[in-house]
Amino acid sequence: MTMPWGRIENDAYWLMFLASFIVVAIWESLRPKRNLSSGVTRRWSRHGIILLAATIVSIALYRASPVIVAVAMVNSRFGLLNKPWLPSPVRFIFAILLLDLVRYAVHRSFHAVPFLWRVHHVHHSDPDLDLSTGARAHPVETILTQGANLAAVAILAAPPAAVLAVELFSCAQSFFSHANASLPGWLEKPLRWMFVTPDMHRVHHSEEVREQSRNLGDIFPWWDHVFRTYLEVPAAGQDRMLVGLKGFQNDESLNLAFMLLHPFRLQPREVTSQETPVIRPSSHSMN
Fold this sequence. Notes:
Helix 1 runs parallel beside helix 7 and helix 4 runs antiparallel to helix 6 (139-156). The protein has one domain (64-275). The protein is mostly helical. It is built from twelve helices and no strands. 38% of the residues are buried.
């Protein structure tokens, strides 16, 4: 009997979604890192609507999930990892690493290509940072990101179990890395070697253009070290660093109309990828 991968993926994803959301929400309420400029009810409702819209559009367009694509490739002759001589554990590990590398590359492209940066503005224009920021992405960004993920799964012929693992990790990591909270120092430093932590990712949401091009990893921090985009701390320090985009740190940035229409509006002056400095090794880098 064929394993019902579609149902497994759906049930596991939403279980992870709810569990990680609840855990991070409780963590934020007990140990908030910063005071938010607007209430969580407004933030969560607006960002939830954007997430719902982006999800519906993506499902309607692709009509297939990454795990379903992986299942379709299992018996294919094609795929970089679809080799009989590759042991299953090796294929599993390589698939997870390469799929996370693709997510890093896609994220970096959203900061490098002018139009993509305009779309990605919506995520960065959040005047605050909390777990709901992980759901704040324009539908166009979701479509492009999901398209890249599906293509990567097909090209690699990644094992369905590995694809599911990445989907679940990424779901939980989205809430965790955007959390308005911090880990104790004794835990933050060693954990940052394994996963992208809130303090690490918060640097990426700095209002400083140079720092927005740092710490681009999704699940693992290793790609930032390899490609020299890692920054340990922001120039202003964690407590004094301002988040968001200059000129958009206001209440209007939480309006649904703003989030949906912003990529297509002309601005008198905007921060573009051309203004982003060339990425060079940081003096704060661990490597």
